[in-house]
Amino acid sequence: MSASEPLISSPSLWQPARRLHRFRRFAAPLLRRPGFLLASALVALTLLAALAPGLFSGLDPYATAPAAKLLAPNAAHWFGTDELGRDLYTRMMYGSRLSVLAALLAVGLALVCGLGLGILAGFLGGRVDALIMRVVDVLLALPGLLLALAIVTAIGFGTIPVAIAVGVGIVPGFARTTRAEVLRVKTLPYVEAARLGGASWTRTAAGRMGHADRQRSAVSDHCALGVAAAGAVSGAGGVQSQPHRPHS
Amino acid sequence: MSRYLLSRLAQAALVLWGAYTITYFILYLLPGDPLSIMLSASGMEIDALSADDLAKARAFYGLDQGLLERYFQLLWGVLHGDLGQSLTMSRPVTAILAERLPQTLALAGSAIVLSMLGGIGLAYLAAYVRWLPLKTALARLPALGFSVPVFWMGLLLIQVFAFTLGWFPATGSQGLASLVLPAVTLAIPSAAVYAQVLQRGFLDVWREPYIVTAFAKGLSRAQVQARHGFRNAALPLLTLIGLQVGNTVSGAVLVETIFARNGVGRLVQEAVLRQDIPVVLAVVTVSAAAFVLVNLLVDLLYPILDPRIAHTAKVT
Description:
The structure holds two protein chains of two kinds. Chain A is an all-alpha fold. Helix content of chain A is 66%, strand content 0%. Chain A has helices at 19-31, 34-51, 88-124, 126-141, 144-155, 159-186, 189-196, 201-205, 216-241. The radius of gyration of chain A is 24 Å and the shape is flat. The radius of gyration of chain B is 24 Å and the shape is flat. Chain B is an all-alpha fold. The interface between A and B is medium-sized, with 21 and 38 residues.
């Protein structure tokens, strides 16, 4: 991000685009699409329900009312009640916290491990690459749900074990996508330029550590890599975390 | 070709061995104390046993050996067709599997056939129809198909076809009628994937020069689609069918639980709840073997179906 700040603080006519400005230019076409608005509204609603479920319902999710059990949806109970007379709408709103937490944990774990393994394999190449990718191949051959079930058998039940189990199930896909992306980016001219400029692979990969001026190419390499990998990966994450949600 | 066959077989065996190894280490290394899990799975309390009994139990489950020693012993058993002893049912795992496997094979087999029929049929129709509203509707259907969760679809089908219409039994594993609803439930997500990919394939194929040639020879639209379009568009499906086997196994766990069928999926669900480690290990191994085997078959079928893919030595 340091690229956007002017290096020389002398007043001039040309100003680099400010962050807000750039954000607006990026977001404007998206905001005109109803599908995008609807999707982001739904995500915002889910997150808000996870943070403050009390906002959406005045009822207690644990309050039982045996007289009002198994009611059909009505004005008082929007989704009806369960076999103990608890309000299902309220329970769903309060339950979203656990689901969101488990999904975030799982995707976060997959992101860290998958990106790490993929970048390691892609950049180092050779034997390390072969070893990591064979392990990933094996993990891909295990059906995701069964792998998750095996991990749950070993470490027990609960939100965090389930999140870990689901996360480990997504790691191989992430690692594979990231490695492919790293291999592609690795051959791009600016990375070669950075390498020819004397930057080592570690420095090219984690270019942030470099000096602002000389390592500019390495920094942009890192950003491009991050964005490309995140783009490829967030799609996969969105799709893959969905079916496991009822599990948690 | 035979050299390729050998290397593919060796690769498949290696992946299978890797799958077994990873699952073994997950199941025996991750738990803090496998003995207490195994004892509670067998219905015993670890606190109620004396130190002498504990040592005996440890030896009985083979936990007195080192992790690696135990691993090689189990692997030796697997290679001889012995998958160990179930903790909760106190029977050999192979006997339980032999009892449950036919149910799951029937379910998975009919689901795969149904999903191919449904998916290919839908995409074929969508490519053939020319009235735009219908074409768009057909093209959007797959997205709906794989957005709907399997368990919800199962419950919906039970509600409509078993409780309201009474055409099929809601649960159970007796007879052909009880197979219909679970197979349809399991087939829908895979069918949606096939339809999506095949539609995409048709879109690409229609632009190929040989389609123009076929039209120029005077063939009708239906003939061109059947003889020249379909065969080329359908090739990517083969790989996909191999990959979908994994999803079918995962789906079978859900579907057999919903429809209360006595299959392997239900077995693994029960085994996980009771932490029956040998059964979980065996089921994961068997399903990995199915996955590897089907994908091996797909790879070997490719050059037969598409002669353009030949396995010649790589030029390096």
